[in-house]
Design goal:
Elements lengths: L1 H9 L1 H38 L5 E6 L3 E4 L2 E6 L2 E5 L13 E5 L4 E4 L1 H8 L5 E4 L1
Antiparallel strand pairs: 1-5, 1-7, 2-3, 3-4, 5-6
């Protein structure tokens, strides 16, 4: 057993290099998983700044329901109907849905929800 360990440690440069490469790929995978939320919030912010979006409503992902008319999100006692593909959304603590006036729906996180709404994370705002 000691011979195997000595042989393994004798090639420490290649072991360190391989470990570094693996860690870089793990880091890139973790960044790729969070990129979607950041890029959608950035795209939404650009549309607001360019005047393409006049109203924005933000609802928590746990406030998405389905009735006989379709899928809707509840924003402060107001029903806003959204496309049906959002009915299968898994509610998460830091996931919010930003619903633009033309029924475009974006996933954003808690920080971006506060950015768009001010101190509150949910509600409607007109620009």
């Amino acid at each position: 057993m000691w011979a195997i360990l000595k042989e393994f440690l004798s090639h420490y440069k290649s072991v360190l290099f391989k470990t570094f490469v693996i860690l870089v790929f793990v880091f890139l995978a973790a960044q790729y998983n969070t990129l979607g939320k950041r890029s959608s919030a950035h795209f939404l912010n650009l549309q607001i700044q360019n005047g393409l979006i006049k109203s924005l409503c933000i609802a928590h992902s746990s406030h998405v329901y389905v009735d006989k008319y379709g899928t809707f999100a509840v924003v402060k006692k107001q029903k806003i109907y959204i496309p049906d593909e959002w009915a299968s959304l898994r509610p998460r603590e830091n996931l919010y849905l930003a619903i633009a006036g033309s029924k475009d729906v974006f996933e954003i996180d808690t920080l971006n929800a506060k950015h768009f709404m001010g101190e509150e994370k949910e509600g409607c705002r007109y620009y």
